[in-house]
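Shipment paperwork, digital attachment
Item: protein structure file
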Amino acid sequence: MNIVDEPLFDAEFEKKEIQNPPNPDLAERIQKLVKRQAFCILCTQGQNQPYGSLIAYAFTADLKHFFFTTSVATRKFKLLSECPQVALVIDSRSQQQEDLSRVEALTITGTALQIQSGTDHEFGLKLLKSRHPYLADFLASPTTALFRVDVLRYLHVTRFQEVSYWVP
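Attachment content:
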């Protein structure tokens, strides 16, 4: 079954975004936010219920892929196995406590795939070890599963309501 990920915007929003590419520094702002934060919320779904999980992540320089791990004995693993469509939520609220109007937030939508072996597996583990060296033992465990999120789009929100849309 092939599920298409579509944002909850009307046709006018989509048309406007396609005709008017986002601010040229948007990709740079997104990259800075993604680099500054070590963790994000992974949003999954199952049995008609949403579920959020805090995860450590790593990402590729082109922002097209994110990597994370989880134990195979978790609800997160079960939900990802049943429905690969996910969202990652990253924000800057911990750096902007004095002025919440300056908080930036990203919702990254995509598809999560378990990577079990091969070059992509080694690459993903290397990225995670580099960014999160304290996870070395967990990453080496035979009960740990590696996932890669193939990014479909970014929704970047500033000032609580200004939304920019970017497809890497």
